[in-house]
């Protein structure tokens, strides 16, 4: 993931939601994202990939800041779909050791078989990264070109 500075952009469509970081919020964020992106007349494949990415980003934010405020921001600008998730943790996202993730997946006694979130985000998004906020929190973002899915 790269760290980028966010620039002010003219937004064609946008949605911002704030949630309490509970596990049930991941589903709510997925549903909200799907409904809104579909209403923006985006290609089905783009919507599906964006929903997967927002789910991973929200799940990571919940893990980083349980029971704290998180915020999702979806918008289109400059020919791109932007997905952003803010949380109050200053700790940048990091990958888990690949072998530990694989071992946990095949160990029925493992309490946490997750760990592929960043890889999923990087595989699906055209650009992704994070930036530190002035408040000490961070924003994890992903961007999708609107041109690659044009009908």
UniProtKB/TrEMBL annotation:
It holds the Pfam family HATPase_c_2. Keywords: Kinase, Serine/threonine-protein kinase, Transferase. The keyword Kinase applies. Residues 24-140 form the Histidine kinase/HSP90-like ATPase domain. This is Histidine kinase/HSP90-like ATPase domain-containing protein. Gene3D superfamilies: Histidine kinase-like ATPase, C-terminal domain. InterPro entries: Anti-sigma-factor_SerPK (IPR050267), HATPase_C_sf (IPR036890), HATPase_dom (IPR003594). It comes from the Bacteria. It comes from Actinomadura fulvescens.
